[in-house]
Amino acid sequence: MTDAATGWAVGQIPGFSLEFVLRTADGGATWRDVTPAPVKSLSVQTDLATAAFFMDANRAWAVFGSQAPEPLATNEVVVWRTTDGGQNWEASQPLNIDGLQSEFFMPGEVVFTQELSGWVMVHLGAGMSHDYVAIYATRDGGVTWERMIDPQRGNLPMSCSKSGIQFLQWESGWVTGNCPGLMPGVYFYATQDGGKSWSGVDLPVPTNDPILLKDQTMCGLPHEPVFINGKSGYQVVQCLYVDANQAAQYLYTTQDSGANWSPRNLPAAYGEVFFLDELNGWFVGGADRDFIDGTKMYRTEDGGQNWWPLSTLIWSGPIQFVNPQVGWVIAKIDQASTLVKTTNGGQSWMDLKPVVIP
Question: Is residue 106 assigned to a domain?
């Protein structure tokens, strides 16, 4: 959501296999399909997955590719962009796929730091604990794209599954991933040249958990880091203690644009976290992966140093707030999900039962 009323989403509509680009103007109760028309025509022939980035109420970018691994199509792959809330879309110049050795072409993530600078990560193949990717970058708002790295070019390790990509400015970016049991530490790589070269980032071990990130634990980064402003950001590290078969989850924060990271405890071993600013944050989760014993919503007002429970729930999922009172969660229970909303800072939640309207 970009404010209390307006927001975007990528989701499916019953009866269709395409992941649609959707937009709401009433706080999430109703949604309109604003997917580019040529993409919807193409989806009749193949099931399409969608990766998108929503900058504000009007500006967005989206790329579409096969939901299932299949050979790289001969048709052109483009990135779509809109500046009027999805009423009109323009296609970029085709992404350069010349010489690209790939099993398939699946969109991963799209990220922009401002209107001109953006990146797209696509997945090209997998197997033997590898996730082969290519990263494209634009400096003209998405009109043209340069291939920065691919499995044959660049030094980003292709081992381990990639969970996200983030940039703070043109030079500084990160790729995150999961390597359970393959290597100590976490898959966390940084670039200082827009994505052409990458180096590993070592995270500090919490003082109260000296074996974290060591051989006795399997750790991963479920998402890319999130930056609240030009200096402050956060990310989550999830770990499993092999011998004890127990899980832990830590919040890592930075105050210097990602140069250094500091660990802090999270209230539960599994769950999702969101920060509105440097101090105000929410966490929803529980002690077990399937949340058999339910979940709780927690609140912090000191940047995650202390948390207190707000409400007892039966679901978890991605959180977003636009101010200290109004927020949403994509609430997931088993295989089902819905959109819930709060107007009192997370103390109580209402099921919006969202619908897509013509």
Answer: yes
Q: Is 263 helix (H, G, I), strand (E, B) or coil?
A: strand
Dist. CA 236–CA 247, nearest whole Å: 13
172-176, 214-218, 297-301: segment of lowest average pLDDT: 214-218
| Under 8 Å between Cβ of 117 and 167 | yes
* Inside any domain, residue 213: no
Quick one: which of 217, 197, 193, 190 has its CA closest to 205? 217
CA dihedral sign of residues 42, 43, 48, 54: positive
Query: In this structure, is residue 197 part of a structural domain?
Result: no
CA 259/CA 247 separation, integer angstroms: 27
85: three-class secondary structure by DSSP: coil
Model confidence pLDDT, tens digit, residues 49-63: 899 999 999 999 999
Q: How is the beta sheet containing 350-351 ordered, strand by strand?
A: 319-321, 327-333, 336-342, 350-351
Q: How far is CA 2 from the centre of its chain?
A: 16
Task: Summarize the chain as % helix, strand, coil (round to 5).
Answer: 0, 45, 55
Strand partners, 332: 316, 337
Helix (H) or strand (E) holding 37: helix 37-42
Sort strands 308-313 and 295-300 into parallel, antiparallel or unpaired.
antiparallel
Its pTM stands at 0.94
pLDDT in tens, 222-237: 999 999 999 999 999 9
User: What sign for the dihedral angle of Cα 89, 52, 148, 235?
Assistant: positive
Select from 124, 153, 182 the last residue of a domain.
153
pLDDT band of residue 213 (cuts 50, 70, 90) is confident
Answer with the one of 153, 180, 210 that is the final residue of a domain.
Answer: 153
Number of domains in the chain: 2
CA-to-CA separations, 103 to 48, 131, 240, 267, in angstroms, rounded: 16, 11, 31, 41
What is the domain range of residue 1? 1-153
Residue 301 lies in a domain: yes
Whether residue 247 contacts residue 240, with contact meaning beta carbons closer than 8 Å, is answered with yes
Q: Return the CATH number at 84.
A: 2.120.10.10
